[in-house]
Design goal:
By secondary structure, the chain is of the alpha/beta class. The protein is built from four helices and six strands; from the N terminus they run E-H-E-E-H-E-H-E-H-E. The protein is 22% helix and 20% strand. It is globular and about 40 Å long. The structure holds pyrazine-2-carboxylic acid and zinc ion.
Length: 187
């Protein structure tokens, strides 16, 4: 039985080159992710979407980004949503952020675990942006809180990399949480 889902993290315009919180080379993951979503290997495809109110607490840390309803919060136009079954928004509560697609920083669900459970999903591949923030948090919670067999496909991820150690540290943290970190995306 195919019980694997693809979780596509935060392909919002604001994380793309030229966006408010641009992740280097972020647009390079889009064709890879389009191919993964279309390849028939996944029983379920879900995309998370960073989605903040104008007065969100995240803007103490980060530049204004992914403001709900703004063009920067929309997905990149080349991201093919035709194969996406569900979209899970996160970070919409003013006073609490949610790097993870699963639970916010108060532990409240965004609904992702419930969607996957309802579909009988036991394994997930996590891809998208950013390796050192939302991909990391989503993959770790997938492997731990949601108890899913979790892989991260690195060629389909890009990191913010505020310091050069951030992405390698994120990879190490994911591995320590039981995530299988894959160097290739041909899976
Ligand atoms: C993210 C910083 C702020 C991410 C979201 O998607 O990794 N990073 N909001
Ligand atoms: Zn955000």
């Amino acid at each position: 039985m195919n019980n694997r889902a693809l979780i596509i993290v935060d392909l919002n315009n604001d994380f793309m080159p030229g966006g408010a919180l641009a992740v280097p080379e972020a647009d390079q993951v889009i064709p890879i992710i389009n191919d993964l979503a279309a390849n028939g290997n996944y029983a379920y495809v879900v995309a998370t979407q960073d989605w903040h109110p104008l007065n969100h607490s995240s803007f103490a840390t980060w530049p204004l980004h992914c403001v709900a309803g703004s063009p920067g919060a929309e997905f990149h136009p080349l991201f093919d949503q035709g194969k996406v079954h569900a979209i899970v928004r996160k970070g919409f509560d003013t006073d609490v952020d949610s790097y993870s697609g699963f639970y916010n920083e108060r532990g409240e669900t965004n609904g992702l675990a419930e969607l996957l459970k309802a579909r009988g999903i036991t394994r997930v591949d996590v891809v998208g942006l950013a390796t050192d923030y939302c991909v990391k948090a989503t993959a770790i919670e997938a492997a731990t809180l949601a108890a899913l067999d979790t892989r991260v496909l690195l060629p389909a991820c890009r990191g913010v990399g505020l310091t050069p150690e951030d992405v390698p540290r994120a990879i190490e943290a994911m591995r320590e949480a039981g995530v299988e970190v894959m160097e290739e995306a041909h899976v």
